[in-house]
């Protein structure tokens, strides 16, 4: 794969993530530190997951064994998500105490909470992309490209870039959805996250079938975009609710002054 193709695949896989980083995190030192800490934790989690299968390598190539491996991987990551939620709650308490002790500092708003969740989700997506795609992509720099018999109409690198993009979007915005569901006690909203994660993982098995990538990749991208749309809807709803609550609290003061 020549350098232009390498650069194109790299940008397809990580371009939206870079846009999110540039828009929300680049000038916020605390969020940058949170991203680094969370990325390290997710990397350790992925390494521990790989150690679980050390004694079973190489896995049998049939779908049952691969599906079992994916199920374990998703279960470990979803358990880590709950651990991240516990840390998120402690972090909000600590930040709230700091805000109370500082003059002129406002309270922690829902927007601040959503940014913290987005930062943790971005760390998850970036770590996943680095671990499963960017770590091996430079090894294939050269003049040739690679096509698999199961997916002859799409290069291996382009298929990997599109799959990485889908999972990047899914992991980034799923954290916001899950944290909002846990905060509001909406179990259906929280449960949708591990279900979507497992569905996306199992969809990758379709790539083993002839031309399966032509069906699985659009569905994976649809899941990623759906998670982004759901997170955007949650942010919009929370912003409207918080604005209405602020207006309601300010109403008695305005009547008294008049």
Helix content class = over 70%
H/E order of the elements? HHHHHHH
Helix/strand class: mainly alpha
The total tally of domains equals 1
Rg computed from alpha carbons, rounded to a whole number of angstroms = 21 Å
Number of DSSP-assigned strands: 0
How far the N terminus sits from the C terminus, by CA atoms, comes to 72 Å
- Mean pLDDT comes to 85
**Which residues form runs of ≥5 with pLDDT under 50?**
253-258
Which percent range describes the beta-strand content? Answer: under 5%
Number of helices: 7
The main β sheet shows up as: none
Shape: globular
Characterize the structure shown.
By secondary structure, the protein is mostly helical. It has one domain. It has helices spanning 3-24, 29-52, 63-101, 110-134, 156-184, 187-203, 213-257. Helix 2 packs antiparallel against helix 3 (63-101), helix 2 (29-52) crosses helix 4 and helix 5 (156-184) packs parallel to helix 7 (213-257). Mean pLDDT is 85; it is low at 253-258.
């Amino acid at each position: 794969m020549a350098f232009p193709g390498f650069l194109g695949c790299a940008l397809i896989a990580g371009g939206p993530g870079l846009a999110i980083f540039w828009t929300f995190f680049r000038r916020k030192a605390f969020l940058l530190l949170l991203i680094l800490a969370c990325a390290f934790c997710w990397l350790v989690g992925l390494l521990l997951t790989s150690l679980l299968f050390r004694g079973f390598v190489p896995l049998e190539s049939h779908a049952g064994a691969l599906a079992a491996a994916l199920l374990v991987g998703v279960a470990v990551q979803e358990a880590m998500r709950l651990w991240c939620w516990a840390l998120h709650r402690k972090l909000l308490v600590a930040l709230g105490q700091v805000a109370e002790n500082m003059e002129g500092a406002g309270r922690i708003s829902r927007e601040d909470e959503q940014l913290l969740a987005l930062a943790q989700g971005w760390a998850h997506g970036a770590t996943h992309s680095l671990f499963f795609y960017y770590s091996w992509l430079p090894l294939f720099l050269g003049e040739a490209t690679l096509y698999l018999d199961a997916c002859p109409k799409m290069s291996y690198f382009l298929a990997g870039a599109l799959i990485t993009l889908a999972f990047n979007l899914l992991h980034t915005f799923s954290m916001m959805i899950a944290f909002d569901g846990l905060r509001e006690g909406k179990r259906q909203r929280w449960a949708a996250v591990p279900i979507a994660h497992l569905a996306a993982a199992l969809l990758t098995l379709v790539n083993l079938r002839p031309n399966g990538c032509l069906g699985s990749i659009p569905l994976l991208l649809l899941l990623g975009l759906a998670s982004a749309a759901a997170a955007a809807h949650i942010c919009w709803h929370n912003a409207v609710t918080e604005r209405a609550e602020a207006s309601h609290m300010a109403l008695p003061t305005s009547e008294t002054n008049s």
